[in-house]
Design a protein that fits this description.
By secondary structure, this protein is mainly α. Helices cover 75% and strands 0% of the residues. The protein is built from 12 helices and no strands. Helix 5 crosses helix 11. The protein is elongated.
Length: 200
């Protein structure tokens, strides 16, 4: 494994364990048993490392979200989406626990994140259009309704781990999956009765 990839993986491990706010580039270098100069050869600062981590997380999400948009297997689509999302959120849990602080501290990271949200909005809309076209949804969802569903879903997803922490729910992949189901549940009333059983 090359040094740059090792730095990313080590940083992610330390951020998840201790919080990125307590971890410095010197901590990362020490954990890897390399000099700080070696680390700075690859990354200018900690913020740059976090940006690369975010992009890596999104790449993992894209591996299953994009193919799932036109998946005719409704039960498989939802189950896979929930399972993958729970695991990825756990693997990058520091980001969700510190979301507001990270975005406020680094304007570049915030621009990257907001661009990703815009791309996800298009994915969500495509999923709803697919459900409408295949007759899975009872009636077409208006733009106003979709905007509300999307906003509520984003809010719940972005602060899901913080809510779990506040309510003393252990942050594990299994528990994240259980809680994330609540987000998916919001679209259940829009489905025809024969399809509602897939979301419980």
């Amino acid at each position: 494994m090359d040094t740059k990839k090792r730095i990313i993986e080590t940083a992610l491990k330390l951020f998840n364990s201790n919080g990125s706010y307590t971890v410095t580039t010197r901590h990362i270098a020490a954990e890897m048993n390399i000099s700080p100069g070696n680390l700075y050869y690859h990354f200018g600062n900690k913020e740059e490392i976090i940006r690369i981590i975010l992009k890596g997380m999104i790449e993992e999400f894209n591996l299953f979200i994009r193919p799932a948009v036109y998946n005719p297997n409704l039960s498989g689509q939802f189950n896979d989406a929930i399972s993958h999302t729970g695991k990825i959120m756990y693997n990058y849990r520091f980001f969700f626990m510190e979301l507001y602080t990270l975005l406020e501290k680094d304007p570049v990271l915030k621009r990257i994140y907001m661009k990703i949200k815009q791309e996800r909005d298009a994915d969500f809309r495509a999923i709803f259009q697919f459900l409408e076209q295949t007759g899975i949804i009872e009636e077409p969802v208006s733009d106003e309704e979709f905007a509300i569903i999307k906003e509520n879903a984003w809010t719940m997803a972005e602060f899901l781990l913080q809510s779990m922490y506040i309510n003393r729910i252990k942050i594990t992949p299994e528990n994240i999956i259980k809680k994330f189901t609540n987000i998916i549940y919001m679209i259940r009333p829009y489905l025809k009765k024969e399809f509602r059983e897939f979301i419980k």
